[in-house]
Design a protein that fits this description.
Number of domains: 1
Number of helices: 11
CATH superfamily: Metal-dependent hydrolases
Strand order of the largest sheet: 3-5-6-7-8-9
Largest sheet: 6 strands, parallel
Radius of gyration: 17 Å
CATH architecture: Alpha-Beta Barrel
Order of helices and strands: EHEEHEEHHEHEHHEHEHHH
Strand content: 5-15%
């Protein structure tokens, strides 16, 4: 599996406070079957992290993990979760350095509370600057909850979406869970990531959440095939037909 969204780096956002927490998170991800883990710290007004800082901390973590090879660890790649409002003020060179794994895709965080600007217009604007957009946890965005057609329009223009695995088991509430599963059934989800912040409290797991939501037939596409294409900058593979024609899971889940 490939996890495209993980708050892995220590002391840089609301993820682990110390590097030992980062090590525990990486080891837990490996034991859960994750082979590649992308470190995506917040880049926003509260955490104005720069690509240079992210790269330095990632190198330090790689060295610490390599010093203790007794337990497996995933391959680590650099990225970021860039808030939409903050991204608008960054220059394109810095945004490019924040892309996932050095590829063409930017993990863009839409607001999770009401805002006084046009979210769709903002996302389209970032894409228009030459950045391919992967929308983080759309299931938690009030704009999309109110009118899923807004999200469908962005997907129609070339954006992809990444749902948080824990949302599928109700971590963010029943309404968010129902909406996340609905988006999958409507063909508006292309990736599931852990959005992990801690090795136990918000762990880097995905498989069990997909199975519990009745989405096992799509697990390989959502957690391996699509993220591999995103990191490589290759064409996104078509969604499996079994995921289209399989039994529909009701919004309440199994």
């Amino acid at each position: 599996m490939i996890d495209l969204h993980c708050h892995l780096l220590a002391g840089i956002d609301d993820g682990p406070a110390e590097i030992e927490g980062s090590r525990a998170l990486a080891r837990t991800a490996a034991r859960a079957g994750t082979q590649t883990l992308v470190a995506t710290p917040h880049v926003n007004a509260r955490y104005p992290n720069a690509a240079q800082t992210i790269a330095r901390l990632l190198d330090e973590l790689r060295d610490r993990l390599a010093a203790d090879p007794r337990e497996p660890s995933p391959q680590l790649r650099a990225g970021a979760e860039v808030a939409l409002a903050y991204a608008a003020g960054l220059d394109d060179d810095e945004l490019a350095r924040l892309h996932l794994g050095g590829g063409p895709w930017l993990l863009l965080e839409p607001p999770s509370a009401p805002v006084d600007f046009d979210v769709a217009e903002g996302i389209t604007g970032i894409a228009g600057r030459g950045h391919r957009v992967l929308i983080a946890h759309p299931e938690r965005c009030p704009v999309f909850q109110r009118d899923p057609r807004v999200l469908a329009g962005l997907v129609g223009e070339g954006a992809l979406t990444s749902v948080t695995a824990a949302a599928l088991r109700g971590r963010f509430g029943t309404n968010v869970r129902h909406f996340a599963i609905e988006l999958v059934h409507e063909g508006l989800v292309h990736n599931v990531a852990s959005d992990a912040h801690h090795h136990e409290e918000r762990p880097p797991t995905m498989t069990q959440e997909l199975e519990r939501a009745g989405l096992g037939p799509l697990a390989g596409w959502l957690t391996s095939e699509v993220p591999a294409a995103i990191l490589a900058g290759e064409e996104i593979p078509a969604r499996p037909e079994r995921g289209r024609s399989g039994a529909r899971v009701p919004p309440g889940g199994p």
